[in-house]
Amino acid sequence: MSERTFSTIGVVGLGTMGAGIAEVFARNGFNVVGVEQNDEAVERGRAHLQHSTDRAVKRGKLSTDDQDALLGRISFATDPTALKDADFVVEAVVESLDVKKSIVSTLDDIVSPDAILATNTSSLSVTEISTASKHPGRVVGVHFFNPAPVQAFVEVVRTVVTEPEVLDDARALVEKLGKSPVVCGDRAGFIANTLLFGYLNHAVAMFEGHYATREDIDAAMRLGCGYPMGPLALLDLIGLDTAYEILDTMYRQGRDRLHAPAPILKQMVTAGMLGRKTGRGFYTYEGPDSPVVV
Ligand code: NAI
């Protein structure tokens, strides 16, 4: 067991996930340094944090004193050298291998040799990202779910070269955040998305084959299996373009035919039927949050 203690956490990229991750660490007493690519993006990240914690206050989940303390623990920078004292840095920049590798390589020369470098990637190879470090054993996947402040589950991803102490320490850190970590190997989709998207894709194939109506497929899983939403309604919520990209990436990496995107999915994406966000997917909507109308 390693002796690492963590006090300063770096978060690179303060978009949807990074801002949420920064909030989670600050809420649990860690000092956080958030790094973005320019001042405008810093301001967006800061506004995201303000908005999210305002909502927590309104819902009675956070006092205004605690909100002030939480926000006071987060500092912002556009220069990555601000991360020199960080013990643990998680990157949550765009899902691009090149961008993530360049961040890891930059961080490698800034943080101490003991610091852990974590990636929040959903579908890229953590192993490939780790090759950008001179110490790939310190790189680990820490896959938060969206929204990070709410979702209690985190997948901690080990590569074949992740040092056992790094894995143990990353898992212990996730537990300190009040979240439940699970550990898995490095494959696109990890545990949850591998299983979920295989299932969603199967539902699409069933619909495409005219085996049952969309309503009956969804009802079977809601009423028969107790799922909160049916698979086709869930796909409309995720966005058919996003679902297609995730399936395609998993299929290209794992060659598991469960993940070969059902052809109709691509056709619907090409036709602009992306789900709720465009008003039409498997169902038709009046607006992004409206109930089904057709
Ligand atoms: P996003 O597009 O909302 O945020 C990405 C942020 O990275 C942007 O604010 C951008 O300005 C910043 N960025 C880009 N290059 C940078 C650089 N060189 N230095 C500093 N910041 C930089 O993306 P999102 O959705 O937050 O996703 C981030 C990561 O988290 C991706 O790897 C994604 O696959 C993963 N993820 C996303 C989930 C989701 O539901 N959105 C869920 C779990 C993981």
TrEMBL record:
Domain spans labelled 3-hydroxyacyl-CoA dehydrogenase NAD binding = 8-186
Question: Could you tell me the keywords of this UniProt record?
Answer: Oxidoreductase
Hey, which family's this protein in?
Belongs to the 3-hydroxyacyl-CoA dehydrogenase family.
The protein in question is named 3-hydroxyacyl-CoA dehydrogenase family protein
Give the GO molecular function terms: (3S)-3-hydroxyacyl-CoA dehydrogenase (NAD+) activity
Keyword Oxidoreductase included in the entry's annotation: yes
Domain 3-hydroxyacyl-CoA dehydrogenase C-terminal per the UniProt entry, residue ranges: 189-285
Full-protein residues shown here are: 1 to 294 of 594
